[in-house]
Amino acid sequence: MLGPLQPLIDMVTSPLFLMIVLFPGLTSIAIIGALLGWLERKVTARVQLRIGPLYASPAGGILQMFADLIKLSFKELFVPENSDAFFFIMAPTTGLVIGAALVGLIPFAPGLQIANIEVGLPAFLAIITLSPSLVLLAGWSANSKFPFIGGLRALFQQTAYEIPLWLSALGVIMMAGTLNLAQIVAAQSTGWFIIPQALGAFIFLVTSVAEMERLPFDLPEAESEIMMGWQAEYPGVLFLAAQGPGFVKLYAFSALFTTIYLGGFLGPSLLPPLFWMLSKTLVVIILIMLLRSTFPRVRLDQLLRAGWTTLLTLAIVNIGITYLLVVGLPTF
Amino acid sequence: MEPLSSFFAVSVILLGIGIYGLTTKRNAIRILFSVELIYNAANLNLIAFARLRNPPIVTGQVLVLFTIALAAMEAAVGLSIIILVSRLNAEIDLSKLSKLKG
Amino acid sequence: MTDLLFLAFAAVTIGAAILAIEARDLVYGAAALGIAFLGVAGLFFLLDAAYVGWFQIAVYIGAVVVLILFTVMLVGPKMGEAPLGLKRVSLLAAILVSLLLGMTGALANATAFPGKDSCGSGCDLYLLSTSLLKNYGVQLEFMSLVMAAAVIGALALSKTDRGP
Amino acid sequence: MVAQGIPEIGAYIGFLFVSTVALIIVLKLLITPRDPRPTPEKKKPFESGQIAVGPGRTRFIIQYYPYLLMFVVYDVIAMFLFAWGLNLRSLGEAGSLPVLVFIVVLLIPLGYALHLANHRENW
């Protein structure tokens, strides 16, 4: 009876499709992104002795971001004059896809991973490198001053912090001897990598905050200087598409930090692995949010110089320490 | 499974496009694009030919790592030269840059 | 499935390569070049060279295309747009390209090339690493010298005595 | 089962891309007002309430260009080091010697770049 529909039903009920659409996939990304927005506003408000979102639901305004989302969706959509319409629309959309693609590489629990590829960690980092060119194109396409300055700042900042990010992740690879994220988690069953890799974890956290363009490294958007930077001209849904990757990247980077330094889904078997993974990720997210409300913004030249001198040197020192830990003292 | 020859076909077409750009364009940046396309054609060929061996060998991939690195260096130096030339001459059309002819 | 993926990647690569050469605006040309690199990376994945594919994405699209886009925006997208005016050369190039395409047709018909089967040890990541360091260690040193020369040369070239 | 290539991540990215584009198109069709003609003032570039003067793509930050060049080179180096790091245990000390020389040689241009940076005002 179902004859012609059978392949379709098979496809929809296959585990991969369910993963893509439901858990680590699209629906969860949208919901988690909105909840992270709420959490960030609440945490920042608590640090600054304010109340934060309050009205949009019975439970402390937890639906505030969903309300904002609906409001933004109903704003009028237009393209500013003299701007390059193709790149203006394509850049934030592709940026959203790239941000969301990161989540697919993370093992949330044994078997609960969309793509378990052999070179998972370089794949994650290589997908990250696609975002500077998109941000530059977005800033260029608007043909306006603030977006262009913001795009250039984003370009320099993200390229400067990518190298320390790669080199701090190299320490984990040297310890684990594999590039596969699930196997990196398995290698931590004898001890989390944050203890031998404390320096690397610190560099990774700082550089990933810079890659996400969050305070204290939010120069590309700096509201008080260049009015949201490269996002200044975006109306309605496109503004949503430009803002969304920030929260999705926060989620993905925190999950990656948990995976490679905090033992991922490993934990006492009283509770399911997924619980350990998500609770550790939540701790990392709250840590990054507290960074935001604690430190003041830095200047662009200070930022770039710190990235290319201090952090790069620390990353190379970390590689040396890891080499000694794994191979032992050289015997020339 | 498509035969490996189709990969060679893509490689040859890329090479053709690169040579076409190299011969007809006079913009320095456009010529750099053509060179990069030719590099990519060569890389594709190397990897496909490494798969052609029975059993396949890994040397092709190692060579491609070196080629990609060299192409990146070439782009870095080439683009610095282009920026310098455009500052000195306000022009990057290679047919009009004839100062060195004396 | 692989057939469809191969056709998609090949079409994207070739179309984007043509666009990169022919696009009126250089910014579009640079973006198309990035997409062509992405297509080549996809072909690398189909040949089971996953590490090289991600290397290609990180280096070419992450770094080289960004540098090209920055340079194009700095130099000005419209600068250096000379009319072609090279009828004979372009005719020669067209003949050359069609010869190459004809060779392609001959290649595609040849039965000398077997279909690709399982890759086995030819695509092993650890073997790649060992081969790179054990058999090509000296070449790696020369590579580092080339890189050092390239950085120093590029920095010296872009050094300006004037202010920004 | 560890997959070598892309089928899964490719399907995921493709699905994401198609659904995002579809979402945007559908939302645009659903949402845009009946008479979607923005007024000329609305389409002007944003400049904090002022009327924009001069070209939009202005104030090019050129002084950090050397950082971009260094990024290209160090990206390549990081990828080479990844290929070394994953096999460190079996390579051991003898196999790692080329990479140690590699790292030392590449610290020279970094030193040169930072030497330049100290002699310039901005970076």
Keywords:
heterotetramer, B: 102 residues, mainly alpha, Helix Hairpins, D: mainly alpha, Methane Monooxygenase Hydroxylase, Chain G, domain 1, 3 helices, 0% strand, disordered N terminus
Layout of helices and strands, plus pairs?
The complex is a heterotetramer of chains A (332), B (102), C (164) and D (123).
Chain A: H1 6-13, H2 15-21, H3 26-47, H4 64-73, H5 85-103, H6 120-128, H7 131-141, H8 145-176, H9 181-187, H10 198-211, H11 223-226, H12 236-261, H13 273-294, H14 300-327
Helix pairs in contact in A: 3-4, 3-12, 3-13, 4-12, 5-7, 5-12, 7-8, 8-10, 8-14, 10-12, 10-14, 12-13
Chain B: H1 5-24, H2 28-52, H3 59-89
Helix pairs in contact in B: 1-2, 2-3
Chain D: H1 7-31, H2 65-85, H3 88-118
CATH class division of the largest domain in chain C: Mainly Alpha
CATH superfamily of the largest domain in chain C: NADH-ubiquinone/plastoquinone oxidoreductase chain 6, subunit NuoJ
CATH architecture name of the largest domain in chain C: Up-down Bundle
Beta fraction of chain C = under 5%
Give the helices and strands of chain D as they follow along the chain. Answer: HHH
Query: Poorly predicted ranges of chain C (pLDDT <50, ≥5 residues)?
Result: 110-115
Give the amount of beta strand of chain D, in percent.
under 5%
Q: How far do the termini of chain D sit from each other?
A: 48 Å
Taking the sheet with the most strands of chain C, its summary is:
none
The CATH topology of the largest domain in chain C turns out to be: Four Helix Bundle (Hemerythrin (Met), subunit A)
Characterise the protein shown here.
The complex is a heterotetramer of chains A (332), B (102), C (164) and D (123). By secondary structure, chain A is mainly alpha-helical. Chain A has one domain (78-327). Helices cover 66% and strands 0% of the residues of chain A. Chain A is built from 14 helices and no strands. In chain A, helix 3 packs across helix 4 (64-73) and helix 10 packs antiparallel against helix 14 (300-327). By secondary structure, chain B is mainly alpha-helical. Chain B starts with a helix and ends in a 13-residue tail after the last helix. Chain C has helices at residues 2-22, 26-46, 50-75, 87-109, 125-134, 137-157. With 164 residues, chain C is mainly α. Chain C has two domains: 1-79, NADH-ubiquinone/plastoquinone oxidoreductase chain 6, subunit NuoJ (Four Helix Bundle (Hemerythrin (Met), subunit A), Up-down Bundle), CATH 1.20.120.1200; 121-164. Chain C is globular. Chain C starts with a helix and ends in a 7-residue tail after the last helix. Chain D has helices at 7-31, 65-85, 88-118. The radius of gyration of chain D is 26 Å and the shape is flat. The chains are: A mainly alpha (332), B mainly alpha (102), C mainly alpha (164), D mainly alpha (123). Chains B and C meet through helix 1, helix 2 and helix 3 of B and helix 1, helix 2, helix 3, helix 4 and helix 5 of C.
